[in-house]
Write a structure and sequence with these properties.
By secondary structure, the chain is an alpha/beta fold. The N and C termini lie far apart (38 Å). The strands form two sheets. It has a six-stranded mixed beta sheet. The chain has a four-stranded antiparallel beta sheet with strand order 2-1-4-5, with helices on one face. Helix 6 packs across helix 7 and helix 7 packs parallel to helix 8. The longest helix has 16 residues. Strand 1 and strand 2 form a beta hairpin.
Length: 276
């Protein structure tokens, strides 16, 4: 991938309310299904009681979509996140990731799929504290025997450049701001070239300005063709993605396209100038 390719693929961002044609990517019906969820159920036994966390939900997410999954506490959002991230398996129903059935896999196979197919971005960044940005980004590639040391370094440097941290490669986690740490986490999510970026409350620990910076980066990744699932409890964030799925009491109660897509870049520019 040539340096700067992501930026050259970007259209002009529209007004703050968003020029949806510019911000969104039209996903053809023929696009490959990255996530296929069919009648997914997840039950937990708590003492003598059975808790039905997911109650037969179904949806698909195609390659190149940017989808927000929302829900309040108790909606089943966290349970769904764990299943989509191959951290848990459903009680019944089917989950296919990039065409691969996940439910019948053992833990080792799910760990392999998780590392090769999914890039995770967490609320708390989950960076190793005493290592550099470069070393943190290299970490997923250490588990890929097909990638040698030099390729690992070059791919990690490229990922850091893509998120605007070419000048922070040798900085340790405690030498970076929260926004910079989250950019390192996004670079780490990208380095294995996953089919899916799965973000869990990725702006939850950030202030408003930094949140818009991170959302702008996600919108750039979406424009570059990445498939992104952004899990959050904050309805404000759904205005920056192209589709919203809402959970309530283990059911999907809304699955809709965003016809009024906002530009995080323009929203950031509209914020008052901060005093030094």
């Amino acid at each position: 991938m040539e340096t700067g390719e992501m930026k050259s693929a970007l259209p002009d961002f529209g007004a703050i309310r968003g020029d949806s044609a510019a911000l969104g990517r039209k996903i053809p019906d023929s696009a490959k299904k990255i996530i296929e969820v069919e009648e997914l159920r997840r039950d937990f036994q708590v003492g003598d009681e059975t808790v039905h966390a997911l109650r037969g939900i179904s949806f698909d997410i195609r390659e190149g979509e940017f989808v927000t999954i929302m829900g309040t506490s108790g909606s089943g959002k966290s349970t769904l996140l764990n299943i989509l991230g191959c951290l848990d398996t459903p009680t019944s129903g089917e989950y296919r990731l990039d065409g691969i059935p996940v439910r019948s896999m053992d833990k080792n196979r799910r760990a392999e799929i998780r590392n090769r197919k999914i890039g995770f971005v967490f609320q708390s960044y989950n960076l190793l504290p005493k290592t550099t940005a470069l070393e943190n980004v290299e970490l997923p590639l250490l588990y890929n025997p097909a990638v040698g040391a030099e390729e690992r370094r070059l791919r990690s440097l490229e990922a850091l450049q893509k998120v605007g941290l070419a000048d922070r490669v040798q900085h340790r986690s405690n030498q970076m701001s929260g926004g910079q740490q989250q950019r390192v986490a996004i670079a780490r999510a990208l380095v294995n070239d996953p089919v899916l970026i799965l973000a869990d409350e990725a702006t939850g620990n950030l202030d408003t300005r930094t949140s818009y910076e991170i959302l702008s980066l996600f919108q750039e990744l979406h424009q570059a063709g990445r498939t992104i699932v952004f899990v959050t409890h904050n309805p404000e964030l759904s205005r920056f993605s192209s589709r919203t799925i809402v959970l309530r009491d283990g059911h999907v109660v809304q699955d809709s396209l965003n016809r009024d897509l906002r530009s995080a870049k323009e929203a950031l520019q509209a914020l008052p100038v901060e005093d030094d």
